[in-house]
Design goal:
Elements (H helix, E strand, L loop, with lengths): L7 E3 L2 E3 L7 E6 L19 E5 L2 E6 L11 H21 L7 E2 L11 H7 L1 H11 L2 E10 L4 H4 L4 H4 L20 H22 L4 E4 L6 E10 L3 H14 L4 E9 L6 E7 L1 H11 L10 H16 L7 H17 L8 E7 L13 E3 L1
Antiparallel strand pairs: 1-2, 3-5, 3-6, 4-5, 7-9, 7-10, 8-9, 10-13, 11-12
Helix pairs in contact: 8-10, 9-10
Length: 362
Amino acid sequence: MSFAAPFRRIGGARRPVRAAHRELVALLPGEGEAVPAPRPPAIPEGCAILPAGPFRAVVAPPPPGPGRRRSVAAIRQAVARAALLRQCRLEALMPFGAVLPVAPGTSAAGLDLDALAVANAPEIEKALARVAGQAQFQCMLDWDVARAPTRFAQAPELSDLGGAGQGRKSAGPIAGGSGDVDTALAALARRLSDEAAASLDAVAGDSLRLPTEPGGLLNLVLLVEQAAQPRLDAALQAIDDIWTDGFRLRLIGPAPAVSFLLGRIRLAQTGDVDQARVTLGIAADADLADVDALARARRGALKASRCGNEGIGFDEIDAAHSLLSAAGRLGDAPPGRDLPLLTFHRDGTAAAAAAPEFAEVA
């Protein structure tokens, strides 16, 4: 089976909406659901906003590569520039409403944006609702390890050392050190990190802890509602007040929720759909637009799997159901058309890690 792309009329002709030689940057709510504003927001430089079914798609030229310079340093610089350009584009899109970032490097060439939107409409609507009115912040907390034994001499982790660590000229490792002071500092660092994370989690709808750099206490990504942002500021100030001249607290944001919902696209072919039919036991001539029939087939397959009759996992059954549901939304089509499937992932990476500018509380 193959799939029909929804068409819109352009200049009197029926043509699928395409975006050649560009990357798909993000998806936005439809025009009618845009955030009211006294004047239309400015489209980020180099970007274009195209209709995509009931939604809108943002496309842009891919970032420049390292050119003829193929050294490791040149490649790293190109990657950093691309990450910064992408982040600037995503942040500039926030006045348009909820932003659903798509994985970097997703080509829009040959991609039918209307078909993408219609086939995956329930997933896109759910994702938009998930991030509406929220923004992502990244909080990084470092400390002055060398002076920590003096500042926290009365802390439970250090109090039994009798001041042995005070006045150390060398910071030493935070974790894995051989001395009692290093072990105590590692325990203190864990407690301070957990307490700071707990106070920030209290004002966030969701959070992700990321690895810290050497000397770091906390690297936390937060999803925060707009109304809760003053509480976030207060929580950050309370953390800074613990040790104003020894803590270094950096905040990056607001930004779209890249770490919590990142869209990834794969193209399903006719063979994938045929296999999904077999998985759910659906006849080759069955109407995939029959939502109730697909639901019954899914329940039957799950029941058979629980009884150990088919040897098919629950994830495989759900994936087959999602694929056939997307195909049913598009209907019949000329042969050879791939089906764009969109899934959203909790990526767990810092959206703004490459940004050079940030707010600092210190």
